[in-house]
Amino acid sequence: MRIRHILPVVAALSAAPHALAQSVNRPDDDEIVVTSERPRGGIQADAPPESTLSAADVRSIGATSIFQILATIAPQTGSASIRGSGFPVILVNGRRITGPQEIRDLPPDVISRVDVFDEQVALQYGYSAEQRVVNLVLERRYSSGQIEAEGGVAAGGDRTQGRLSGGVVDINEGNRIAVNAAHEFASEITERERGIRPPVSGADQRDLRTVAPETEATRASFIFARALDELVTGSASGRAERSEQRALLGLDGAGALRVRDTTTDALRATAALDGSFSGWQYTATLTGDQTKTETTTTGTTAPSRTESDEGLYELIGTLGGSLAELPAGRVRANLRVGVEQRTIDSTSRIGATTTTANLERTTPSARATLSVPVTNRRREFGAAFGDISLNLTGSVTEPSDFTTLTSFGFGGSWAPTRTLRFTAQAERSDAAPTLQQLGNPVLTTPDVAFFDPVRGESVRVTRISGGSPTLAAEAREDLTINATWSPSKIDGLTLQASWARNNSTDVPTSLPTALPETYTAFPTRFVRDLSGVLTTVDTRPISLAARDVDSVRVGFSLSRPVGRRPAPSAGAQGGGRPSARPAAGESGASLAVAAQPAPPAGVAAQA
Prior knowledge:
Layout lengths: L1 H23 L26 E4 H7 L4 H7 L1 H4 L11 E4 L2 E2 L4 H4 L6 E7 L1 H5 L9 E6 L2 E13 L6 E13 L2 E12 L2 E2 H4 L15 E3 L1 E14 L4 E20 L5 E21 L2 E19 L5 E23 L2 E22 L2 E23 L11 E11 L7 E11 L4 E12 L3 H5 L3 E10 L4 E9 L8 E12 L7 E17 L6 H6 L4 E3 L5 E5 L3 E20 L26 E8 L12
């Protein structure tokens, strides 16, 4: 009886493949479509992350701030290109943010996942391909309050420092609020405390000169984000900071003690709107930043005072999404438009001489990027060639005090296998000097310890610093090639290699005073007395005629759980507050190593 019941079932199953094959060709039959969603907080791009850290990986680092986490994984997030600041582009839940201040005061426990992407992903968010991208995915729900106190004494008791901070954080799906305040201080370090040798002749002023000034700083900040509806989120943030420094500069010619006091007040406010419609994602951010610095030098026959008031006002809008559907995937586009205004009002008074500078730069800009998939293994279109995609990018910037600056670039990626990926990006661009390089107030600092590489001796000089209004625009030609391999047989291992060539002309940069050749090329910047001893150094920026840099970056990252794998935390499931410590049996270990030669001395890239 059982066999008689089973035989019809077996016959039906054996005929099913043939029946299904016939039904595929019937347009009237219903189709079964299987779809899947991106991981929560994923980015708007088809590129896979080069590396991923889970919440357990993040906690295993033992960091007390998100910036410490970023510093720990710097070998994975750094770019071989010398452009940019070396700091990666930061996204939160796959969205642009108004700046680092949005994550500065968030505790590490709030992170659910960290994804690291190559430079080409930056193009799809309106940035240039100079920095890698780090996407921080936050827990759905999180709440905490904290008070932190730190104190320390330098070796030998030369310096004491301390910090007291506190804050609260609350996250509930799309709503987020964080408030933080901190106060920190550090005592001065004199030349005697540092162990500097006394002069061969003249008075011993080591107790009257500081190698590290006395500092004190107070800051407060807030971040507020709220989901206006299912598709739109609004956010605002603010930050206020005041810092003070006091440095001893030794005795002047009349025997009076010179003291330099510096006070800096900074205010920053941002507002942003983030949303999506019909598969397109948009952001609009408004930023205002004001920084005022006052520096006074007293106790001298020629007292000085400098004041600098810098302002930044910026409005940026981005729009990104899918333009068309090709057999290999979606054609994606991103458009970024914005306008930025920077101002510097500076005054320098030395004795009876007063110098002023009032600079203003208004810079409208636009950047467009187009990404086109060529082949795709998952869609079985050109699968024999792997995954291939190409991109084009161009930008135009028109500073009010410079001629029009343009850029044009192209690149692509090729993943012949699931674990191996190559990318290449080339760009030709122009860049204007910063207003600080052009208009910082001229500041004269007497009696500064300085090494003269020509004579091979340490001397006391008068150092002149500030801006140089004659700098020209920089022309750049860049090429970057990356390779990433994640061996399938070694779980958690990622090997990375990058090569970059950066060629530039008319490069604005600090005067490379450590190079003997500089003293011959710029004789007017270095003044000597009749015996040839260096007395005055003018360190204001210059333009290098050309700079060619080839850099290679190789490294690996290894992240694997130690012990049994933990179950997902409640926070990751959208439940209550996640644990601030790994659960029982939950531990993680990560290792990241990279090597990259530093650029030649004196030609470091400008941010």
